[in-house]
Write a structure and sequence with these properties.
This protein is mainly alpha-helical and 251 residues long. The chain contains eight helices and no strands. The radius of gyration is 17 Å and the shape is globular.
Length: 251
């Protein structure tokens, strides 16, 4: 089986951040504006994700549209899991952030103990791919909880949240460029893109009285989905050749 995940290029990070934004705004649109509620939205997304993940697991190589569809669905479900814990079960963001951090650390520990690597360039077996997607789900849930904790509970707001998380990612990228372990910096950056995308989505979609620009969840979601589809289509037809220069990736 060929490696099942894409090269980590500039296009990878652009699509990843936009996917997290769609996860935030899309979940809000379905749960609030459509009126499905957090529980029903979560169940629907879990069902769709199961189907997409089965298709992804059956593939023998990286297929851009299957992979990124799965990521978008993981993003929405990760958002719904955190919202369910916070809004329905009234679990504090401090507790959920800590809980997801522990779950992600445990996933990495078991993955490394089993495979002796956490590199995304070696996702060449079904077991490694299952570890990979488990880690991805927990990074989205952790990023959502940590982002909400920072922008809401700690009062940073959407504007400051975007700046802070973008700055943290820049620091991590600088650490990678300075020679810090590529696997470690990749996963830290991957986690941080979730609250960055969520803060960006809230900034664009929320009403001005809540600190946003008032574009609405449907228009924000559609705009970002359009860009994601265009980029994924381009990568599909170009054989993912774009950006194959030195990339912020795991060795």
């Amino acid at each position: 089986m060929l490696n099942k995940v894409p090269e980590v290029t500039l296009f990878f990070w652009i699509i990843k951040i936009m996917s997290t934004t769609v996860g935030e705004t899309g979940a809000d649109y379905l749960a609030v504006h459509v009126g499905l509620g957090t529980t029903v939205t979560g169940l629907i997304m879990a069902g769709l994700l199961t189907v997409a993940l089965l298709v992804q697991l059956r593939a023998k190589r990286y297929v851009p549209w299957i992979y990124w569809l799965t990521v978008v669905l993981v993003s929405v479900l990760g958002t719904q899991i955190t919202d369910l814990l916070t809004d329905k079960l009234e679990i504090s963001l401090y507790a959920s952030t800590a809980g997801f951090a522990v779950a992600l650390a445990a996933t990495f520990a078991i993955w490394y103990a089993s495979e002796r690597t956490l590199s995304i360039r070696t996702i060449v077996t079904t077991r490694r791919e299952l570890f990979y997607w488990a880690a991805i789900l927990f990074t989205f849930a952790l990023g959502t909880a940590a982002g909400d904790l920072a922008t809401e509970a700690l009062g940073l707001g959407f504007n400051v949240g975007v700046v802070v998380f973008a700055a943290l990612i820049a620091v991590v990228a600088g650490a990678w460029a300075a020679g810090i372990d590529a696997v470690l910096t990749f996963w830290i950056a991957y986690i941080l893109t979730r609250p960055l995308g969520a803060s960006l989505g809230d900034l664009l979609s929320q009403a001005p009285e809540y600190g946003g620009l008032g574009l609405g969840t449907i228009y924000t979601s559609l705009a970002f989905l359009t860009v994601i589809i265009a980029l994924v289509a381009w990568l599909t037809f170009e054989g993912d050749r774009g950006g194959k220069t030195q990339s912020f990736a795991s060795e």
